[in-house]
Amino acid sequence: MAALAAVTLLSLTACATDEPGAGPSGGSSSSAAGSGTGEQSKFFVQADYDAELALLGATPTGPADKPWEQMLNPTMVDTAKFKKAGPHKICFSNAALNNPWRQVGFKTMQAEVEAQKSRIKEFVHVDAEGKDQKQIADINDLLGKGCDALIVSPNTTATLTPAVEAACQAGLPVVVFDRGVNTKCPVTFINPIGGYGFGHAGAEFVSQKMKPGGKVLALRILPGVDVLETRWSAAKVAFDKAKVDVVGVEFTDGDPAKTKKIVDDYIQRYGTIDGVWMDAGAVAVAAVEAFQDAGKPVPPINGEDQLDFLKVWKDKNLTAIAPTYPTYQWRTPIIAALRILDGQQVSSPWKLPQPTITQDNLDRYLDPAMPPLHYAMCGCTDLPGYPQRWK
Amino acid sequence: MQLVQRRPLPPRRVRLRPGGVLPILAILVVLLVLVGIRQPSFLDPPSLMSFLGRSAPIILLAAGQYFVIVSGEFDLSVGSLVTAQVVVAARLIDSDPARTWPVVLLLLAFGALVGLVNGLITTRLRVPSFITTLGMFLILVGAVYLWSDGAPKGGLSEEFRRFGRRAVEDVPLLGRVPYALLVLLAVAVLAVVLMRSDFGRTLVAVGDNPRTAQLSGVRVWRTRTVAFILSGLAAAVAAILLGGYSGVSFQAGAGLEFGAITAVVLGGVALGGGRGSVVGAMLGALTLELLFALMNFYGVSGALRSTVQGAIILLAVAVSATRSSSR
């Protein structure tokens, strides 16, 4: 045991101290590898990437002031066989409520249900608490509850696929949103453009606004999660193309303290950082604070549509952008379910627009009265109970 | 154990008192030299001050953990206690500056209460502290989750965040001196004074040999319970600084218990109790943070941090096991 531990520690310290040998000539190891973005993610699919980037420029159909009802490149499918007289009982199997994004989204969905209360007699919500097994059981239970339509936000794609297939076979219309499943059996799958679009928008902005060839720090939450991997892989493509020097790609675990330390470390190590890219906005404010507390100007940075970031952006006059993964997509499944039960055509898949908050439209989304973790792109200002419900 | 330790040690040129701070000081100096070679600007007062400020919470936790470990127990609940404190503070303050001080007092009371419960369950109900504090860890995680519906609510006031984020500006020579560093120094002085008092000697004696301590009239359960309370209080202070540093988050305290335990054993404190100094434990935390900073300067992935921590714990325990089996 002692020997093993000693060997482990020695080899580790060797890792930590070996590099100075190569140091003076090679500089840091990351600068040697091209632009420092490393290998492309295993999750990267060129065709999906191309499709998403094309959608970023596409014009949506549907009412311009209601992006949650808009569709990009719609393919309409017939739903006449699901036509049924109302009012309806709508059931929702939810993957989890374990982060602010899902909290805001679910409140938005509840408000949409309330807004449609003349047509919905009952709304059943089951929270799977982030557990695949619970969600499989939840879906199974809901099938015996006489639901007129089933909405599913799957916890994971592969594991939930059989449960969703079983629901389709039960004959009721199934609507899947947010994360997908590996089956075409649901009537429609609703989601915004996706991770490539998100990652690309941020990376393109950061590399355009910073000085050419400058140093970028990329902050990621976790490796191995598809939605986050696609964001990073699109950013990698953009950074490689712009030939900026990505000096670090670090994982923050979504922890602001860790983020702040990482950013502080990089500021110490390189003197200045010219751009910061992030795959999610949760720790954007911590990154901004790290620059402020070190007495450095905040470089071009991307966050997300959370109010704390929008506030600091406005107050400190940052050079920033906020790609979004809009929470208004939680309204759409209710609307889709009701349309299906009316026998109206819906688009399958139903691709929602994915707006980006820029300096030009920042004021439209920044409502200082809303709490710091609220998502501005909720499309909820016209819903019953706004703003109190979201506070 | 100290008698036993003295006898078998071979003659050495440098006299090392077991549990003394010399070894950790030596490691610290070596790391400082390595940092100085690789990144001389790190040793400039402004960046050194900022490093000390942001390291203050883990150093405080190491001090708290020291009291528990030297008395022969463990406290695994401190990380989740820090998270709970930060989340509770955000919800209660709700961005209202006037609530800052009442909430600070409440957090200290809450920390002490959690420590008291840990201590009483361990000493009176005779549940091993490893299990007690693991249970407390899970209870706090679950309670925070339930209470906040899975996402932190509210916000910390700028007054609250000041302790962990702001600094005394324009100090001659040093530049900015973070408030967190001042808090740390104050706590360190208190801890040293405490360890030099009768209580401190009793605490070490209890960890060294609880039976002997009991026979010489020490109320072992009371001493150990106080150690847990001190750990809870340290966690409260660390939470105030950490919440101030980075704002409210569910991850605020994640993994800190292991950081603190690693720091304590790195500082020469024996797991199982009875040996080591609080200064050593705090220097251990500082050394660990410096090691991580150094790893960063040499471009080592941050993902290796927990591996390094694990290796240090294993190595330290292995070394102390070899020592005690050689008697």
Automatic annotation (TrEMBL), chain A:
Family membership, please give it: Belongs to the bacterial solute-binding protein 2 family.
Which superkingdom, per the lineage?
Bacteria
Q: Which residues form the signal peptide?
A: 1-16
User: What InterPro entries does this protein map onto?
Assistant: Peripla_BP_I, SBP_2_dom
Q: Can you say what this protein is called?
A: Ribose transport system substrate-binding protein
Q: Which GO terms describe its molecular function?
A: carbohydrate binding
One Pfam entry for this protein is Peripla_BP_4
Gene3D superfamilies reported in the protein's UniProt record = 3.40.50.2300
Keywords on this record? Signal
Question: Which compartment or compartments is the protein found in?
Answer: Cell envelope
Query: Source species, please?
Result: Micromonospora matsumotoense
Every copy of the Periplasmic binding protein domain together lies at 90-344
Q: Name one GO cellular component term.
A: cell envelope
From TrEMBL, chain B:
Kindly list the GO CC terms recorded for this protein.
plasma membrane
The organism's lineage is: Bacteria, Bacillati, Actinomycetota, Actinomycetes, Micromonosporales
> Keyword Nucleotidyltransferase, does the record have it?
no
User: How the protein sits in the membrane?
Assistant: Multi-pass membrane protein
Location (main, coarse): membrane
Q: Which PANTHER family match?
A: ABC TRANSPORTER PERMEASE PROTEIN YPHD-RELATED-RELATED (PTHR32196), AUTOINDUCER 2 IMPORT SYSTEM PERMEASE PROTEIN LSRD (PTHR32196:SF71)
Where exactly are the transmembrane stretches of this chain? 21-39, 51-69, 76-93, 99-120, 127-147, 177-195, 226-246, 278-298
Per the UniProt record, the source organism is Micromonospora matsumotoense
A UniProt-annotated Pfam family: BPD_transp_2
Q: Where in the cell is it found?
A: Cell membrane
Write down the superkingdom of origin: Bacteria
A GO term for molecular function: transmembrane transporter activity
Keywords (alphabetical) are: Cell inner membrane, Cell membrane, Membrane, Transmembrane, Transmembrane helix, Transport
Descriptive protein name: Autoinducer 2 import system permease protein LsrD
